[in-house]
Amino acid sequence: MVGGGQGEQGTEQEVRHILEHSNLMSSGGSGLTITTRGFQFLLLERSTQVWFFIINYLQVVTAERGFNLLECLSYLFQLSFSTLGKDYSREGMTECQEGLLQHLRMFGLVYQRKRSSRRYYPTKLAIDLVSGARLSSSSSQSVSVAPRASSPGFVVMETNFRVLAYTDSQLQISILSLFCQLQYRFPNMVVGTITRESIHQALINGITAEQILSFLRLHAHPQMLANNPIIPPTVTDQIRLWEIERNRLQFEEGVLYSEFLSASDFDKVKRYAEDLGVLSWSNPGRRLMVVTQYGHEEVRRFWRRQKNN
Question: Is 198 helix (H, G, I), strand (E, B) or coil?
Fold first, then answer.
């Protein structure tokens, strides 16, 4: 989701499909890009992330591959009561459970030495499915931010927009790079700067200013937590201003009408478009007007009738 390393080809395709289905990523001209919902997903606790992913995975396989939902849920709950480090046999598993097992193996919830192995080992992610889940009943429809109580803060935000991140986690560094221009990297720290260009790029990818500020607050270094407010007001205000700057224009598709032979023809079409409520813009001096995409067909039929008359 954050542009990190690629996995096996089969795993990548399966995960990409589920990420698109759950609207965590969207496909575009440059491939898959993270969405607003996807960035919010990265702020959730690990157990909530796993359950959200599993719920969307079950929706895909039951609708597109004919998997039996009751069998899948039964097997998932069985895994959650397994013992970490103990191996289990595949004997007696149904065809649906076999298919589910191979997918869980690709997602990291089950370990097998190789695909044909007759024994498998549930991982900690699978065992924590029930005991560690805190997903609300509405999480299949929306994603809400939950604080990471178990994760110590590592981000120091300075008033000059410089970011110091005391971490060696590739995931956290990749998340920072979504809205921050990284400059230096050390064994246990990275240094970057929040710029107008980096924020605009994040906004283009669907990440909002409030989500960026929430990430900085959730992962603020313990020394930052002593400040009130936690994030310097100059940084907070500027990030929000950059978002407003980008959103000050709204784009709407339309059709340009030009080359009218007389001012009376222009006025007739303009009045008709105004009466329909589909006129977006007009310039009587140059005999130009823009009609919305929705009203184009009706205005064009009116203009043809006028020309024929």
Answer: helix
* Beta carbons of 178 and 4 less than 8 angstroms apart: no
> Are 258 and 285 spatial neighbours (Cβ–Cβ below 8 Å)?
no
* Dist CA 257 CA 238 (whole Å): 40
Q: Tens digits of per-residue pLDDT, 244-259?
A: 988 777 778 899 999 8
CB 255 within 8 A of CB 293: yes
SS3 at position 19: helix
Reading the block at residue 13, the tokens are 């395709």
Longest CA pairwise span in the chain (Å): 86
Q: How many CB atoms lie under 10 A from the CB of residue 244? A: 9
CB distance 254 to 279 below 8 Å? no
The overall average pLDDT reported for the chain is 85
| Residue type, position 195, single letter | T
| Region of 308 on the Ramachandran plot (φ > 0 left; ψ -120 to 50 alpha; else beta) | alpha
Model pLDDT, residue 145: 41
Do 273 and 289 contact (CB within 8 A), yes or no? yes
- Give the three-class secondary structure for 114: coil
| Six-digit token string for 149 | 């109580």
Cis peptide bond upstream of 187, omega within 30:
no
pLDDT (tens digit, 9 = 90+) per residue, 73-89? 999 988 888 898 899 99
- The alpha carbon dihedral of 200, 206, 210, 212 has a sign of negative
List b or e across 9-27, with b for residues whose CB sees 16 or more CB atoms inside 10 angstroms: eeeeebbeebbbebebbbe
**Block residue for tokens 């607003």:** 36
